[in-house]
Amino acid sequence: MSSEVSEQAIKTQVLYQSIVDDISEDVPMEEWSSLIIEVPEENPKRILYEQGLYSPGSGEICNKYVSMSASSVLRHPYFNYPAVLDPGIKKALLDPEEKVTYPDDGQELYMTLCKEMNQCPVSIFFKGLLKDSIDLRYYGVDPFGVRAMASALQYNKYVKTLNLTDNFLNDDACFHLGEMLISNSTLSELNLTGCRIGHTGVKKLCAGLHLNRGLQVLSLDKNQIGDIGLEHLSAAIFRGINVKEISLSYNNITGKSANILAEALETYNKFTHIDLSWNNLFAPVAGTINLLSRLAENKLLQELNVSWNSLSSGRIGSALKAVSKCPNLRVLNLSNNKLTGDAIQNLIGNLEKAKKLVSLNLSYNPLTPDDALRILHKIKLNSVKIQNLLMENVFIDGACLMLLKQIKEMKTKKNVNITYGGIIGGFQPSEPDMREIVLNRVDFLMMKGKKKKIDIAIVAMQLLKDKVDILPSKGFADALVEAGAVLDADLVDEIVNAFSVSKNPKAKMISISLLVDYIHRKWPDRKLPPTPPPEPETPAVEPSPGKKRKDKNKK
C-alpha cells in the first residue's frame, strides 16, 4: 500500500515539474500568436469579377441572410423585396377565354368538335370540305355527329351539294342543319331523301330557311312528314324562301295540307320544279284543285310531277288544263292516275296554248281508245308543240294507228315520239312482202356452199347488162343453171311470180329490170365488178435476114 502511494507522488511531482519547466522557457518571437496573421482565401467570384466574367447583380441581399430583429432593416423585407408578379391566375378567373378562330373551310373545326364530342370523324366528309360536293348516301351517319358537320359547313365556301340520302336523322340533327342554313350561302343543293325526319324535323329544319339565299334544290322525299310537316314547310314558304326545286314524294300528303300550301303560294310562287308524286292528293279534292289553280299562276314553273295520286274527275282535268298553260312549263307527268273521259277531254282543251310543253306523260291511266284518239287529234295540230307523248299500258285501235301513221308522215312532226301499250279491235296487219321472203331464201341457198358461192344479185345484174329483160319461167331457170345455181322449180316459180309482168297467170314472165331495181334497194352495197379494159394487141415481129440464112443452113 505504501509503495503505491510513493509511486503516485513521484509521478505527480515529475509532471508538475515538466510543465513548469516548459512554461518558464521563452517562445521565439516568430511563434507569437499575436503576430500570426492568417491570409484569407481569395473569393473565386471576386476573381471572376476582376476578369469581367461575373456580375454580382443589384447588390441586394436575399431575405435569407437578413435578420428580422436587426435594427439596420428600416423597412419590412416584403416591401423591400416584392413578391413574384401574377402568373395569370387573375386573368384566368376573371376574364373570359379568348375565342379561337378557325379557317373557313371547317376542317380544323370539325376535328376539334369531334374530339370534344367523342365522335369518330367521317373521312369522306373531312376530305369533301374542300370539294364541290359531299356524298354520304347510305353511309349510316350518326345523328349526333351531324352537329359537328353542320358547324364545319357553317362558313364553308367550297361545298355546293350535300347528299344525306337514307341516313336516319333525329330532331337534333335537323336543328343543327337548320342553323347551318341560316349562315351558309354557298350550299345550293340539300338532299335528305329517306332520312325519316318526320314533321318535327321539318319544323326545326325550316325554322330559319327564309334567311338562306343560296339553297336552290331541297329534296325531302320519303320522310313521312305528313300534313303537319307540309304545314311547317308552308309557313317557311309564306315567309319567303329562295328554293327553286322542291321534291315531296312519298310523304302521305293529302288535299287538306295541299290547301294550306296553296295559301302559302299566294305570297311566294317562284318554284320551277315541283314533285308531289306518290301522295294522297285525291282527297279532299277541293284542296288539290286549289293547289293546281295556284300553280297555274306560276310563270316560272318548268316541271310538275303529280303521278301516283289517284287523280280523277272532270274538275281535276280542268285544273290540269289551267296548269298546262303555264308559259314555261316543259314537262307534265300525270302517269298512274285515274284520268279518263271528261278529265282527258278537259285536259287537252288548250294544248295548242301550251307553247313550251314538250313532254306529256299519261301512262297507266285508264284511257279508252276514244280518249287516245282525241289526244292524237290534238297532237296532229301544228300549233301543238308536244314532242313526247307517253301512253304506256294504254290500248288503241285501228283508227288510232291510221292517225299515228298520218302524224309520222307530216314534215312538222318528224321528231314526235308517241308510245302506247297495245292494239285492240278488228285491226288486221298487212301481209308480208313475198319479194323479200323469196330473195332471202334464194340468197341463203346460193351462198351456203363452201366451194362455190353464187350471188343472185350479181346474176340478175349481169343478165340486165347483157340486155336480157323479159324472160319466161323456163328461160330464167336455164339462166340460173348456166350461172351455176341449182334451185327447186317451185322456188323459181315463186321468184317469177314476185317479179311477174304478165297479166295472164298461165304465161309466167319475169322482169329482170324489176328484180334488179328491188335488189338495189335491198342490197345497195352489191354491185357488178368493173369490166377490165381490153388488152392492147402486140404487133408480130419479123425475123431479120441474117437469122433466115442461119435457119436455111440448119435445114
Automatic annotation (TrEMBL):
<dbReference type="Pfam" id="PF13516">
    <property type="entry name" value="LRR_6"/>
</dbReference>
<protein>
    <recommendedName>
        <fullName>Leucine-rich repeat-containing protein 74B-like</fullName>
    </recommendedName>
</protein>
<dbReference type="InterPro" id="IPR001611">
    <property type="entry name" value="Leu-rich_rpt"/>
</dbReference>
<dbReference type="InterPro" id="IPR032675">
    <property type="entry name" value="LRR_dom_sf"/>
</dbReference>
<dbReference type="InterPro" id="IPR052394">
    <property type="entry name" value="LRR-containing"/>
</dbReference>
<feature type="compositionally biased region" description="Basic residues">
    <location>
        <begin position="546"/>
        <end position="555"/>
    </location>
</feature>
<feature type="region of interest" description="Disordered">
    <location>
        <begin position="525"/>
        <end position="555"/>
    </location>
</feature>
